[in-house]
Write a structure and sequence with these properties.
With 192 residues, the protein is of the alpha+beta class. It has 2 domains: 2-124, 3-Layer(aba) Sandwich (Rossmann fold); 135-189, Orthogonal Bundle (Helicase, Ruva Protein, domain 3), CATH 1.10.8. 32% of the residues lie in helices and 17% in strands. The chain contains 8 helices and 4 strands. It has helices at residues 2-8, 47-55, 70-76, 87-95, 135-146, 153-156, 163-168, 182-189; strands at 36-41, 61-69, 96-104, 117-124. Strands 1-2-4-3 form a 4-stranded mixed sheet. Helix 2 packs parallel to helix 4 and helix 5 (135-146) packs across helix 8 (182-189). 23% of the residues are buried. Keywords: Cytoplasm, Methyltransferase, RNA-binding, rRNA processing, S-adenosyl-L-methionine, Transferase. Residues 1-126 form the Ribosomal RNA adenine methylase transferase N-terminal domain. Belongs to the class I-like SAM-binding methyltransferase superfamily. rRNA adenine N(6)-methyltransferase family. This is Dimethyladenosine transferase.
Length: 192
């Protein structure tokens, strides 16, 4: 299809990029400092790594509208103390305002897939809803906390925080990551 597009759109204002999206530098798409608007039907098998890759460019993105597997969208918008709440929920909600727009039935496709889909809009925050000094450290804390969902924070975070540190952040060291709010993760990330 790429060769066909190149021939068909030869005299039009169209640029075609053929690259691995997980390695692609989105800043190469920026024109006149305008923020990007990204729309797509993401490959379901790489949707989570692709969403994390796109977060690296949040300051360059106006919004993103994607069709994804419904269960991924449910995880993106999940709230604490629910089955779907996890690392993806926390990191996306830290970076973006997320709105599930609608579901798409398998009957809308031919052949129909075995999964349901949803369309979601993400608008990166100009300023995140919680303050953290070091985004990478925050992401590391969140990843560690959810690395073993059923374990208590005092166990999952022991390589970076002890029970006393967790308690100093106003959080029960015996709590599990799935019960913490975005603000709680931010407080944990601020402990030195």
């Amino acid at each position: 299809m790429i060769e066909w597009l190149k021939k068909t759109a030869k005299n039009q204002n169209l640029r075609i990029y053929n690259a691995d999206v997980l390695k692609f530098d989105l800043k190469t798409l920026l024109i006149d400092k305008r923020r990007l608007r990204i729309v797509g039907n993401l490959p379901y098998n790489i949707s989570t790594p692709l969403l994390f890759h796109l977060l690296n460019y949040a300051s360059n993105i106006e919004d993103m509208i994607f069709m994804l597997q419904k269960e991924v969208v449910d995880r993106m918008i999940a709230v604490p103390a629910t089955h779907d709440y996890g690392r993806l929920s926390v990191m996306l909600q830290y970076s973006c305002q997320i709105e599930k727009l609608f579901d798409v039935s398998p009957a809308a496709f031919y052949p129909p897939p075995k999964v349901e889909s949803s369309v979601v809009q993400l608008r990166p925050f100009l300023s995140p809803p919680v303050s953290v000094r070091n985004r990478e450290h925050f992401a590391h804390i969140v990843a560690l906390a959810f690395s073993q969902r059923r374990k208590m924070l005092r166990n999952t975070l022991k390589s970076v925080l002890d029970a006393k540190d967790i308690k100093a952040a106003g959080i029960d060291p015996m709590a599990r990551a799935e019960t913490l709010r975005l603000e709680d993760f931010a407080r944990l990330a601020e402990i030195n």
